[in-house]
Amino acid sequence: MASRRAAGFPRTPRRIPGSPPPERQQESGDPNLKSERGRALFERLAKDADVVVENLGPGAIERLGLGYERLRQINPRIVLASIKGFGSTGPYAQFKSYEWLRPWVVS
């Protein structure tokens, strides 16, 4: 089996002190979506996923070719949740906001 690093994931970060442990039976990671290998890994994971949660900048997931329409082609049951600090409409929609999406990091 290939290592996470060889599969396109960045180095595994350490758990944040004081944060809850990762939930059981959940998988998460941050593949490099700008590389073919990372996109292929993401699509393989999306094929069996129930939900994809993204907090990329406005329009980034679509520019990567991995928007809702593409995810529906891969997995018709998929739910795409987009977390935006300033919402997806309104005067501040194009501003970027970075908050912790996960209260922990997989160790």
Largest sheet: 2 strands, parallel
The total of beta strands comes to 2
Number of helices: 3
Which value, in Å, is the CA radius of gyration? Answer: 15 Å
Mean pLDDT: 75
Amount of beta strand: 5-15%
End-to-end Cα distance, whole Å, is: 19 Å
Shape: globular
Structural class: alpha+beta
Q: Encode the helix/strand succession as letters.
A: HEHHE
Roughly how much helix do the residues carry, as a percent range?
Answer: 10-25%
Lateral strand order in the biggest sheet: 1-2
Summarize the structure.
The chain has 107 residues and is α+β, with helices and mostly antiparallel strands. 22% of the residues lie in helices and 7% in strands. The C terminus is likely disordered.
What brief labels describe this structure?
107 residues, alpha+beta, two-stranded parallel ribbon, 22% helix, 7% strand
Task: Please describe what this structure looks like.
- The chain is an alpha+beta fold.
- It has a domain of 49 residues.
- The chain is globular and about 40 Å long.
- It is 22% helix and 7% strand.
- It has a two-stranded parallel sheet.
- The longest helix has 13 residues.
